[in-house]
Input
Amino acid sequence: ILIWLKREMRAMDFRKFPVILAVFLVAVLVFYPALAAENVTKIVVNQTDDLTNDTATKLFNYGQQSISLGDFKTALTYYDQALAENRTMLTKTDAILYLYQGKAYALIQLERYNDAVTAADEGLVLYPRDAMLWNNKGYALYRLGKPQEALRSYTTAISYDGNYTNAYINQGNVLRDMGKYSEAVTAYTRANETDPFNIAAYDGLEAAKKGEAGSNQTMIIIFVVVLIAAAGIAVWYIKFRKPAEPAPEEKKAKSKKK
Output
């Protein structure tokens, strides 16, 4: 194309200039995108190579694979090794968030609840608005026998993700265990709204409704019993209570009057 262009320029036939310009533009449109695509490909390949060669990323991936296989002890080993390496790539890709989520979950599965709370808190330092970390922390606190703190964690999780079904279910479980059936019904109802086919949400809602009905019935029975007892005491007091014996001085006064 360039040789042909030079030959045409020498001929100085300006009548052909529009044709020359059109040929030049076509050449640009054909070759430039190819060059640009080649540059993009090189960038993507370089980023892929960085991830592939990054030790922390490799260890994190091994940890994720172990979690999916249910091998929680091995997952923890890989996660801790990843955290001991350079975390630059983990932070750039947000993989470190998933690492802390996975670590807290694995610790919960191993019933190491105090460690799970610690792992969740470490993740929340970097990602304070992550609903899953708050949910994991809440569950660990609940298992540690701290229902009020667990509720606060679940409430925080829901505040950041209003459609987080598991957080609503966990919240309902705690409230039901505390005997707060009406509040539990509200939590399970919301869980059903976010996931209509969730069995845990449905079963929880049914159990909470039964608890609420039983609680209301018990309260009615107690109220009736208290009311009957109060009425009986009043009748006894009015009809059967003996008059008090007069004091000695009163007896003397009555005898003098006679």
Remarks:
- The chain has a mean pLDDT of 80.
- The CA atoms of residues 13 and 200 lie 83 Å apart.
- The radius of gyration is 39 Å.
- DSSP finds 13 helices and no strands in the chain.
